[in-house]
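Batch job 17 of 40 flagged for manual review because the log was empty.
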Amino acid sequence: MPVNGVDHVNILTDDLEATASFYERVLGLTRSDNPTIAKGIAGYWMRDAAGHAIVHLVDRTTAPGRYDEYRPGQPTNALHHFALRCSGFAETVAMIEELGLAHRVMEHPGLGLRQVFLVDPNAVNLELNFPGD
């Protein structure tokens, strides 16, 4: 079976609205309801401009018993970060700086790659890759 790409990333949160707002403001994703989530559990799909689901947010507090062992903000062991291919490097950095978010920029001129690293409200590490940008 060939893998064609990453479908989405799932993030558990105790603050659904703040997390959704972060992904809207920083990544320009649009929130939509998630009709496939179990009844009574709050969450959103965060979609790109083409409507593809990129991040699946789940409000851990609305699922008693299901996610009790998980604590947003705690280390996720082997998972270090998730990376997204992006465009608009200069605009993105300016917006992140305007929002006052801590971040780190790396440039790899020989590879034609610029990167921005930052952390979401749940301590999830993000790597934004800007190839050829």
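Reviewer: the log was empty due to a logging misconfiguration, but the result itself is present. The helical segments are 16-27, 89-98. Unflagging and moving on to job 18.
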